[in-house]
UniProtKB/TrEMBL annotation:
Cross-referenced PANTHER family: OS04G0122200 PROTEIN, OS06G0581500 PROTEIN
UniProt entry keywords in alphabetical sequence: ATP-binding, Cell membrane, Glycoprotein, Kinase, Leucine-rich repeat, Membrane, Nucleotide-binding, Receptor, Repeat, Serine/threonine-protein kinase, Signal, Transferase, Transmembrane, Transmembrane helix
Pfam families assigned to the protein according to its UniProt record, in alphabetical order: LRR_1 (PF00560), LRR_ComC (PF24141), LRRNT_2 (PF08263), PK_Tyr_Ser-Thr (PF07714)
Protein EC: 2.7.11.1
Molecular functions per Gene Ontology: ATP binding; protein serine/threonine kinase activity
Segments forming domain Protein kinase: 635-821
InterPro entries: Kinase-like_dom_sf (IPR011009), Leu-rich_rpt (IPR001611), LRR_ComC (IPR057013), LRR_dom_sf (IPR032675), LRR_N_plant-typ (IPR013210), Plant_receptor-like_S/T_kinase (IPR051809), Prot_kinase_dom (IPR000719), Ser-Thr/Tyr_kinase_cat_dom (IPR001245)
The keyword Signal is annotated on this UniProt entry: yes
Protein name: non-specific serine/threonine protein kinase
Protein's UniProt keywords contain Nucleotide-binding: yes
Stretch forming the signal peptide: 1-21
Length: 821
């Protein structure tokens, strides 16, 4: 072998050995690195003590760890590059071994229940770009070593229990795009040069912490910023950032800090926001900003969907140019010093859903066209100085679930249109105004409402039965009005009621037994209630209810110190004795009439015409439901005269085609068909000057196929006799013109009229007619105080006295000693 060939083979062998020597360590390192990742993953699995979704079910030896759920490996080296196990419900902690996976570029473990601290060993992860550990229960300080992971682009540690200072090394991570440490307990301030070193940052989210100091002016140098969330901290001082340089800014939230404390012209920074043409959310509420809004606010981005300036000291008027923000969804200006009117231009914001203008000094009317805002779901106008009436157009807002108009100077009635489509499923508050009239029937359509407050107004009329249809009511406040009559039995339907206040009205009757339901608060004080106070439910605890100012109550728990209730026999004896006195008076007057009749000089005696039981036509017409509906303004409670067991009586105006006189329209309940027929039959056979005359009847089909039955009478201006016998010390507005008492002449004339009607019914018909329901509530008085007997729904003709078995009517009609059926 020649020397040259020898040298060639020697060189070849040498190169082979060198290459072989290099290959072996590399392969060994790769194997060692894979095993390190494998062991680190097993260590992580071991620290998880609860895996409700079974995320680790694939983490076993039958599969290579690169195939385990949530794990991604590099193709070349088969090293772990990503751990993504968000929202798995893990309970456990992060092991220090996680720092051994040096190829990691992403750790995403958000929305779990990881506890303990962030391992110091994160500084070994020099390739890491995403660290997302938000919505866990991590605690302790942010490790200073995290600042050495200088390739981090996304840092999300929000919604944990982290505390202490944010390390300066973390603030110096200049490669960050997203910096989100919100909702922790972190302290300290933002370095003054923060914006100078973060040219790529897009989101800075440090809200809900304990940070303080000023917003660094250098923030305006971070020209790619889109989101600035610093709300719910202790930042203070003037806002001096030149936001005009942040051309991509979309969300600026600085509320609930101390910005502007003691400064003048605090709102001038808004001028610089004009250049932020992408701005969608502006939240500056709950600071100490003062002064009036600059005119430049009208030049802000038309992309704005939210403006919140609430809880400041801002004064002046609301600019009409607010109508330019055609994409506005949320407007919050409450708790300021705004004056002037609510600009009508606000009704041009067709996308507006929530309007909060409460606790200012706004005056004038609520814009009549507010119903144009069909997307409204919540309106707060309380505690202002608004006047005028409630716009009926509110009824055109089908999404409106909460409306608060309380503590203003609103007047007039509640229009029935108010309840056309608005569900008010959360709250309707009209309290502390000057509203009058009765509650419209439409209020019964609020069958999903939770809280209703109409207190401290001037509402009148009978207790609204329609409230019984509001079956989801939790809280009902009606105190400080003029409501009268008995508490409606329909209220027993409100089984979820927790708080009820009916105090300071003119309610009468007994306390219903259904109030023993598990109420938490009940106030019935300062009414005219009578009878026994219950002892169960809310009535078992004197601190949960009030009944003061009702002088006729008795019984109840001992703490009330009320008189003992009379026994049933005592009450029956007292009641009968009262009727004995009344009947004795009527009998005495009849005797006087008979004696007077025989003593007066008379001409030739003539026989009265015989009265036979044959039909007498009432009117040649029958009025339709539509006509009576129009005559009573939709059977409005403002026209309600009285309510009874068989139906309700309304005042109506039929118009010139029917002589234009006021009439009383008695509408029968669905279950009172027999009473309607009985009354029509009885009235067809009687005619007397002291018996109310039927002018017409109506039997037709109303809404939803229900049968509508009504009888039309002459209207009696002075109401029923019981209203004169039981006048209250506080009169409602519609009673102011009535005399306060019946004088002796009136009493005698009324007794004569009633006795004359009864004499006719009992003695001048072929067959006596027994009224069976005669009481002061069924005796009506006209303008001359003449009395008329009405309500013949229980009347019976006495065809054969020998088979008469007693009375079918109420016990009040029974003479002393008679037992009722």
């Amino acid at each position: 072998m020649s020397a040259g060939v020898y040298k060639f083979w020697n060189c070849t062998l040498y190169l082979f050995l060198i290459c072989h020597a290099q290959i072996i360590p590399t392969s060994t390192a790769t194997v060692k690195g894979n095993e390190t990742d494998h062991l680190a993953l097993l260590a992580f699995k071991a620290t998880i003590i609860h895996d409700p979704q079974g995320a680790f079910s694939s983490w076993n030896m039958s599969l290579n760890f690169c195939s385990w759920a949530g794990i991604t490996c590099s193709k070349q080296h088969k090293r772990v590059t990503s751990i993504n196990l968000a929202s798995k419900g893990f309970v456990g902690s992060l092991p220090s071994d996680i720092g051994n996976m040096s190829f990691l570029t992403e750790i995403v473990l958000t929305n779990n229940s990881l506890q303990g601290t962030i391992p110091q060993e994160v500084d070994h992860l020099f390739r890491l770009k995403v660290l997302s550990l938000g919505r866990n229960a991590l605690e302790g300080n942010i490790p200073d070593t995290l600042g050495q992971v200088n390739r981090l682009v996304i840092l999300e540690l929000f919604s944990n229990n982290l505390s202490g200072m944010i390390p300066n090394s973390v603030f110096n991570l200049s490669s960050l795009n997203v910096f989100n440490l919100a909702n922790n307990q972190l302290q300290g301030s933002i370095p003054s040069d923060f914006g100078l070193t973060h040219h790529n940052i897009q989101k800075i989210q440090l809200s809900d912490n304990r940070l303080s100091g000023n917003i660094p002016v250098s923030l305006s140098n971070a020209s790619k910023l889109q989101v600035i969330h610093l709300q719910f901290n202790n930042f203070s001082g003037p806002i001096s950032v030149d936001f005009g340089r942040l051309l991509y800014l979309q969300n600026l939230s600085l509320e609930y800090n101390n910005f502007g404390l003691g400064e003048q012209g605090d709102l001038k920074f808004i001028d610089s926001l004009v250049n932020c043409r992408s701005l969608k959310i502006l939240k500056l509420g709950a600071n100490n900003l003062q002064g009036s809004l600059p005119r430049s606010i009208a030049n802000l981005s038309i992309k704005l969907t939210m403006i919140s300036l609430a809880d400041n000291w801002i004064s002046g008027s609301i600019p009409p140019d607010i109508s330019k923000f055609i994409n506005l969804i949320f407007l919050s200006l409450e708790h300021n010093n705004f004056t002037g009117i609510i600009p009508p231009e606000i009704t041009q914001l067709g996308k507006l859903q929530r309007v909060l203008l409460s606790n200012n000094r706004l005056t004038g009317n609520i814009p009549a066209s507010i119903g144009n805002l069909s997307m409204l779901d919540e309106v707060h106008l309380e505690n202002n100085e608004l006047n005028g009436t409630i716009p009926p157009s509110f009824g055109n807002c089908p999404m409106l679930v909460l409306l608060d108009l309380s503590q203003n100077n609103l007047s007039g009635t509640i229009p029935n249109e108010f309840f056309h489509v608005s569900p008010f499923s959360i709250k309707l508050n009209l309290s502390q105004n000057h509203l009058v009239g009765s509650l419209p029937a439409g209020i019964g359509g609020l069958d999903t409402i939770v809280e209703l407050d109409i207190s401290e107004n001037e509402f009148s009329g009978f207790f609204p039965t329609e409230l019984g249809r509001c079956i989801t009511l939790d809280t009902l406040y009606m105190q400080g009005n003029f409501f009268r009559g008995h508490i409606s039995h329909s209220m027993r339907n409100l089984r979820g009621m927790q708080n009820l206040d009916l105090s300071r009205n003119n309610l009468s009757g007994e306390i219903p037994d259904f109030f023993e339901l598990p109420l938490k608060y009940l106030n019935l004080s300062w009414n005219h209630l009578e009878g026994e106070v219950h002892t169960k439910g809310v009535f078992a605890n004197a601190s949960e209810f009030s009944i003061v100012g009702n002088k006729e109550l008795c019984g109840g728990i001992p703490e009330l110190r009320l008189p003992r209730c009379s026994s049933d026999s005592d009450r029956s004896h007292k009641h009968k004795r009262s009727w004995v006195q009344d009947l004795f008076m009527i009998g005495f007057i009849l005797v006087l009439l008979i004696v007077g009749y025989h003593l007066l000089p008379r001409g030739k005696k003539t026989e009265p015409p015989a009265v036979s039981i044959r039909p007498i036509s009432v009117l040649p017409i029958r009025l339709s439901y539509k006509i009576l509906h129009q005559a009573t303004d939709g059977f409005s409670r403002a026209n309600l005269v009285s309510e009874g067991g068989f139906g309700s009586v309304y005042k109506g105006e039929l118009g010139p085609e029917y002589n234009g006189k006021a009439v009383a329209i008695k509408v029968f309940n669905q279950e009172a068909t027999n009473s309607f027929s009985t009354e029509c039959e009885a009235q067809q056979h009687i005619r007397h000057r002291n018996i109310v005359k039927i002018r017409s009847t109506s039997s037709s089909t109303a809404k939803k196929g229900k049968i509508f039955r009504a009888i039309v009478y002459d209207f009696m201006e002075n109401g029923s006799l019981d209203r004169w016998q039981h006048l209250t010390c506080r009169t409602s507005p519609d009673e102011l013109s009535m005399p306060q008492i019946l004088n002796l002449k009136n009493r005698i004339n009324i007794a004569i009229d009633v006795a004359s009607a009864l004499d006719y019914l009992h003695n001048q018909l072929d067959y006596p007619l027994i009224h069976c329901n005669l009481s002061p509530s069924n005796i009506f008085l006209d303008t001359e105080m003449s009395a008329y007997v009405s309500n013949f729904g229980l009347a019976k003709f006495l065809i054969d006295r020998r088979i008469f078995n007693g009375f079918a009517g109420p016990s009040e009609y029974a003479p002393p000693g008679k037992k009722t059926n």
